[in-house]
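Holo prediction. Input below; ligand is glutathione.
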Amino acid sequence: MLTVWGRRSSFNVQKVMWLIGELGLEHRHIPAGGEFGKLDTPDFAAMNPMRRVPVIDDDGTIVWESHAILRYLAARHGKGRFWSDDPPERSQADRWMDWSQTALQPDFLLGVFWGFYRTPEPQRDWPAIRRKIARCAEHFQLLDSVLADRPYLGGDALTLADIPAGTALYRYFELEIERPPVRHVEAWYRRLQERPAYRAGVMVPFGELRGRLDP
Ligand SMILES: N[C@@H](CCC(=O)N[C@@H](CS)C(=O)NCC(=O)O)C(=O)O
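Structure of the complex:
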């Protein structure tokens, strides 16, 4: 049996819940982190010394770090569908996953989502927020040019390449911020919204997080 720990409002948990939905895996979900706590218990620290969510236990195999979990689940249960066995093809997914984690996520999730949305209005650092919004506009324009000739980041079908960056789309398009027109990204977002696993795992209303700097 697969068990997943993590609150559904967590961006990193959402990536994992989306893939679990795509794979149709039976699982048990245990809310943890934020208001649900549990991360400071010895049992949780024994699973993940970083005391962060998501964490999974797949029949005794414990994995933490969202991208490590995505790769593990795709390799273990995906039969090459989301993360190819062929190294050149697999690198298509890996490069977009790494780019999302090291470029898009710091600018969008930390810079914009935390800097703007999760920070109470009087504490917002507007020059920094504007710089990060502009960086995100550049990131999404770059993705727009890539998606001009393919429906998904890795090519013709959904793969792990889409999951980290695709998870950012719901919040990016819901926030009241300036965005450049990015019609290929918007078409990709519409394609993702047609997937029940995306709607269930990622399109989780986040109003409760506004102006809250606690986890
Ligand atoms: N690099 C880690 C980051 C994990 C992380 O920072 N998770 C956040 C939620 S997105 C967390 O556990 N925050 C503490 C909390 O929710 O209480 C990953 O990708 O899994």
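The first helix runs from residue 11 to 23. That is the main takeaway for now.
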